[in-house]
UniProtKB/TrEMBL annotation:
Residue spans crossing the bilayer: none
Protein name: Acyl-CoA dehydrogenase NM domain-like protein
GO cellular component: cytoplasm
Stretches assigned to the Acyl-CoA dehydrogenase/oxidase C-terminal domain: 276-430
Family (UniProt): Belongs to the acyl-CoA dehydrogenase family.
Species assigned in the record: Lophium mytilinum
Domain of life of the organism encoding this protein: Eukaryota
Signal peptide: none
Cofactor(s) needed for function: FAD
Amino acid sequence: MTSPKIEARLSTSKPVKKETFGNLAPWSEPAWYSSLASPYYNESHKHLRDAIRSYYDEHVLPYSLDWEEKGEAPLEARLKYASSGFTFADVPAKYRPADIPGPAGIPVAQLDIFHLMIMTDEGARVEGGVGTALAGASVIGTPPIIYHGTEEQKQKWLPGLFTFETSFSLGITEPSGGSDVANIQTTAEKTADGKFYVVNGYKKWITGTPWATHMTTAVRTGGAGMKGISVIVIPVNAKGFSWKRIPNSGQKAGGASFVELDDCLVPVENLIGKENEGFRIIMTNFNKERFIMSVACNRKARTCLSTSLSYAHSRHTFGKLLISNQIISSKIATLARYVESHWAWLEQIAYHIQQSPLGWQDPEIAGQIALSKVHGGRILEMANREAQQVLGGAGYQKGGPGASIEQMSRDLRMMVVGGGSEEIIADLAVRQETALAKKRGWKL
């Protein structure tokens, strides 16, 4: 029973008008936008959300499918985006131009993980590889420099990001393997005078290569296994560095490429961290990359849901609206269950990262993030299939109401395989969580 005090309060209280934002259809935006209260977001987050939504709606979304088809964004659009502050948000203030303190004018020192979630989520409204065409792959290529580079390296490479004088790709995957980082085959041997590394090998499916000035690269400098891995930054204009685009089924504007390294001379000053200690740098870099991909999977699944819901409320079949068929509403409800619960999990992980002194380097999060990416990829696959079922031919057609769904059907393999295939990282999650449980005192 409700207590008399609560009943009295309910009878005299005035209804609070909640703010609304974006697409007001059910489950079409994160719940905190219009429906449910949240402890994670404040006015700063709302300000960022409003600003980035406005920017994308005006400067990106109207042109994105055209840029995807062409395989790149115009230089003017790339320069405008680089100077907008909506990218390179983890670059510290001392390496940023004075007029770009951070996204939407928010100083980067005031940003938290939930700001990152908002920027990733809003950016994932764009289909194809357009996000990479606009910003390059520096979002994954620069963190090793930001968190493990020397002061000289940071001063040399980070300020140029905002004018595209520098742009970084991440060279990990090789023709012989992707997720098996410990068995990298590309070698880096020092010259006799100790001033250079001579790099030989191949890298494959390297995102952002057409616009990169440098490639943050995993190489073998020591013996077999993880203890022989180092990270070095290779200028793309180095002698012996060559590349060519790989024609993939989707994400054409992402610029995925095959890179050949043939006796590339790289100054030893380009080593990130210590020699033969690069494996840990690479693996902790994966935490942020996989979390970003998990958030993007959620938004893209949400796009499938909202597009299906809109279409089902306008399409008539057999004399009635499509949504009036119970099987269609059941599909919508199923997608909503998965999308909303996955988002809540991501928020919980984000909160832990925000509270941890170790941040992205916290050993507690690798398994959680890995599983969240597996789950996000599975949800996206299901959501895209169900959206194409609801839209029928419109979901298979380039252009029209299902254009984003059709594009997504070709892009989603990269979301599932990129950053570590689900088979590999699911196994990683089991091993990581088992080891952590034993440390906490779990007895078998």
